[in-house]
């Protein structure tokens, strides 16, 4: 259960008093997420019920929030189907609940597709949607360094090395260095706002059509192809962590029909699929080792399996990914 911050109906009603969306009819915690607390909130306005989602941010500070609030508005205004923070009657979208940043957003319908049911047509659609997201976000006026990006993985691989086998520590370090070399090469790798965590559980499908992309709180300014690599590793890997090339081809085809790849992106693809695997191996390892989970109170932190991402990395090393 991932409701880390409990709220009462009185607290919620107080927040809702700033909006003209109606009165509180019902609310319930959403199980499933691991980073933030989410509630489905049903409001009654002129006899009609309408549903929203309230997110309370467990890790992001108030200072970090404007990037995400603005990004949601920016993308939604460009017809990208993502949640955005609803402004109250004074134009304020970012709220405070229990001392934490919070906002209310429209509810989307549909469900994520379980990993075992992902097919090429899902991958094709998410590829198209990600390319549209990248194009819409390419001139977004705010920039953000990923909080689990290059500085973080350089620092953390050093910090945890003594807790790992020397083979694992070397493997992480090898991929950190491979990304450093890629950056130094100054290849033509389009940069812009990326989603940063577009796993299949962050996409809703309705009647087999992609309805919305959720959970943009790892968004940052980075290589667009790196974002696609994150998607490929999650959406296109089999239970044994090998890559399903049929799904991966569909993903790349869907993406490329919206935004064509550069020649340098084709060269960078095998490296970035490994970087993306290293990033999630590391972010899963840290809580697994019991190092960093200070901000969670009142709920159990759900741990994801680091070994899966180590195996995806090994799979990417054994069979380098190809673009085109
Ligand atoms: N706007 C929305 N409309 C419909 N459902 C939503 C919306 N926002 C969140 N949800 C539901 O809440 C779940 C958790 O949301 P989200 O992925 O943003 O949380 P999180 O804690 O940041 O998760 P993660 O584990 O991916 O980091 C989603 O999987 C989805 O079921
Ligand atoms: N998608 C991440 C967790 C949320 O950031 C993972 O599977 O490790």
TrEMBL record:
Gene Ontology biological process: threonine biosynthetic process
Keyword Nucleotide-binding in record: yes
Database matches in Gene3D superfamilies: 3.90.1200.10, Phosphorylase Kinase, domain 1 (3.30.200.20)
Domain Aminoglycoside phosphotransferase residue range list: 27-261
Root EC class: transferase
Catalysed transformations (reactions): L-homoserine + ATP = O-phospho-L-homoserine + ADP + H(+)
Listed Pfam families: APH (PF01636)
Pathway(s) annotated for this protein in UniProt: Amino-acid biosynthesis; L-threonine biosynthesis; L-threonine from L-aspartate: step 4/5
CDD domains named among the record's database cross-references: HomoserineK_II (cd05153)
EC number: 2.7.1.39
Keyword tags: Amino-acid biosynthesis, ATP-binding, Kinase, Nucleotide-binding, Threonine biosynthesis, Transferase
Claim: Cell inner membrane is one of the keywords in the record: no
GO molecular function terms noted in the UniProt entry: ATP binding; homoserine kinase activity
Cited NCBIfam families: PRK05231.1, thrB_alt
Family: Belongs to the pseudomonas-type ThrB family.
PANTHER family in the record: AMINOGLYCOSIDE PHOSPHOTRANSFERASE DOMAIN-CONTAINING PROTEIN (PTHR21064:SF6), AMINOGLYCOSIDE PHOSPHOTRANSFERASE DOMAIN-CONTAINING PROTEIN-RELATED (PTHR21064)
UniProt cross-references to HAMAP family, sorted A to Z: Homoser_kinase_2
Annotated protein name in UniProt: Homoserine kinase
Source species: Nitrincola iocasae
Source lineage: Bacteria, Pseudomonadati, Pseudomonadota, Gammaproteobacteria, Oceanospirillales
Gene that encodes it: thrB
């Amino acid at each position: 259960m991932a409701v880390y911050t409990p709220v009462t109906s009185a607290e919620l009603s107080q927040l809702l008093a700033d909006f003209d969306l109606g009165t509180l009819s019902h609310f319930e915690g959403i199980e499933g997420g691991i980073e933030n607390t989410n509630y489905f909130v049903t409001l009654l306005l002129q006899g009609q019920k309408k549903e929203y989602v309230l997110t309370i941010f467990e890790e992001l500070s108030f200072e970090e929030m404007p990037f995400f609030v603005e990004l949601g508005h920016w993308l939604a205004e460009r017809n990208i189907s993502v949640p955005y923070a609803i402004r109250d009657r004074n134009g304020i979208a970012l709220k405070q609940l229990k001392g934490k940043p919070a906002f209310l957003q429209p509810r989307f319908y549909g469900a994520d597709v379980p990993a075992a049911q992902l097919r090429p047509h899902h991958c094709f659609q998410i590829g198209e949607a990600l390319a549209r997201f990248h194009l819409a976000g390419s001139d977004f006026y705010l920039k953000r360094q990923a909080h689990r990006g290059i500085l973080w993985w350089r620092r953390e691989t050093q910090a945890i090395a003594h807790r790992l086998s020397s083979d694992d520590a070397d493997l992480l370090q090898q991929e950190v260095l491979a990304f450093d070399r890629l950056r130094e090469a100054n290849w033509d790798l389009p940069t812009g706002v990326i989603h940063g965590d577009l796993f299949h559980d962050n996409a809703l499908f309705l009647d087999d059509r992609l309805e919305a992309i959720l959970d943009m709180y790892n968004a940052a300014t980075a290589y667009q192809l790196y974002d696609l690599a994150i998607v490929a590793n999650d959406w296109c890997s089999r239970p044994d962590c090998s890559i399903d090339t049929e799904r991966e081809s569909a993903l790349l085809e869907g993406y490329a029909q919206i935004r064509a790849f550069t020649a340098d992106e084709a060269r960078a693809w095998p490296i970035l699929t490994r970087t993306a695997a290293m990033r999630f191996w590391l972010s899963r390892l840290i809580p697994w080792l019991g190092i960093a989970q200070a901000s969670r109170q009142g709920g159990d932190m759900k741990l994801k399996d680091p070994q899966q991402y180590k195996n995806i990395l090994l799979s990417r090393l054994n069979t380098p990914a190809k673009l085109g």
